[in-house]
Amino acid sequence: MKHAEIEEITILPGRKKDGEAEDFGSIVITLGETISIVGPTGSGKSAFINDIEMFAQHDTVTGRTILVNGEHPPEEYVRDPSKKPIASITQNTQCLADLLVKNFLEMHARARKMVDCEVIQKTIDLANEFTGEKILPGMKVTELSGGQTRALMIADATLISNTPIILLDEIENAGIFKDRVIECVKRFRKAVVFVTHDPLIALLSDKRIVMKNGAVEKVLTPKEEEKPILKRIMLMDKRMDVIREKIRQGESICD
Amino acid sequence: MRLIIVAGPPSAGKTTLTRQIINGLQNKSKNKNKVSYLKIDVVRAFEDEELKKEFGIPTKKIYSGDLCPDHAGIMVLRDAVVWAEENESDLLIVESAGLCLRCSPYVTEGLGIVVLSAISGTNTPLKMGPMITLADLAVVTKIDLISQAEREVFREKIKEVNGNIDIIETNALQGTGMRYLMRIVDSLSDIDKEKVMLKGEPPLGVCTICIGKKDIGWQNHFGVIRRLKDADYLYRGD
Ligand SMILES: Nc1nc2c(ncn2[C@@H]2O[C@H](COP(=O)(O)OP(=O)(O)O)[C@@H](O)[C@H]2O)c(=O)[nH]1
Ligand SMILES: Nc1ncnc2c1ncn2[C@@H]1O[C@H](COP(=O)(O)OP(=O)(O)O)[C@@H](O)[C@H]1O
Ligand SMILES: [Mg+2]
Ligand SMILES: [Mg+2]
Ligand SMILES: [Zn+2]
User: N or C terminus of chain B with fewer C-beta within 10 Å?
Assistant: First the structure.
């Protein structure tokens, strides 16, 4: 199976923290979909996406099994990062290399044996869609802010790794435009899974998976009644962005 | 009895990985998979006490002091094998100090694992010499902390040093990727005590500095000596 051939992944149930069987039939994530995982701290959100990341085969704490296009995935998906169809970005993921943004991306493109020299600039442009603090090719990756780093990694996953599935574990505090990430996911036909406490992301998602006690408690799809509320939250979010930017620029928020 | 020698720089995740191995074996069957653990270090080590408490297994440590810890390891390995057999273990895990980049602690029997931390910088594998070239398996830890791009490049650099080495990537705290390691551990055959030999050529005792003469400058020494301008490598094992 090549990346390009992946259409969907299926999550089969395991067991709750207390050892009882998890009670959902199966969860299918299709390319182009945005999924959010919600639930209190310790409820098993990270464990859930870890299962996806390592294509659990009944061999993790949760006992879940992950299928790709309905089949058991090949071993190289987990063992060789360049063959892995999943990019995972968390609050902890860092770029440590002492390199300029453009050299960093070049290093990755070279490792991938990519010949398209435009991909570097395209990746930086895409990253700049996700963040308000402009990323320049000549900046050092180690000096980027949390938001810029996350934005660059998502763009890198989209265009250079070109992985069909992107996992984002609680990146909301990083200050990126999540609605644009979700829009980008649709544009490039990726599946993205957010672990999130952010109401906007949760409401914008195609599915919300609710975790409790180490297990999937339920799977919600957005209701028609939620839509007007979502609109209001999006407006509020835009206004928060404006205020945040004003404060950053040292302006008064009343101007 | 099976034998695993775990090497790698300090804080690479050797002990964390060892915990995962013991955990994996104990989850399968406590009786069938009895592990003995030996820690070799230079001045201080605490792993033996920690692992004894955590898993209830026989553990031991030795301090090598002024001797290269890899040499110290080889010196005591035969005794350690006998000790582990007396414990009725079916696996002996030796964790090296991982300080000496000229030497390597691996032997001809059993499994030699080099543990590398993904956050140590993409050029680190190139600096590690025999610790990588003579290992059977490289385990890359802390992949949860770095970007995808650096993970891929890190792997390429290991391959550059040892093209044939099997590589397993892991977040050793979570135990991701362990299924492959456990498969390898399960497939190990018992060692033949009489056949265990040091794998590498130890660059030991090549000059008078090795035996304690402290003067600086090659003019004051005998043995394999080099001037600054002589070569890129001051000494390369023959
Ligand atoms: N985030 C993360 N931390 C790790 C990982 N592996 C080890 N560590 C941490 O790194 C530190 C050093 O690990 P340790 O096993 O003691 O290294 P050793 O000196 O090689 O035995 C400890 O604090 C571990 O918890 C990993 O894969 N991910
Ligand atoms: N189904 C499960 N069975 C056993 N342990 C679990 C299960 N799900 C999660 N855990 C464990 O519970 C702890 C908290 O889970 P985590 O996924 O980190 O929660 P969250 O990300 O929601 O804060 C972790 O140590 C995890 O390994
Ligand atoms: Mg979490
Ligand atoms: Mg240790
Ligand atoms: Zn040495």
Answer: C
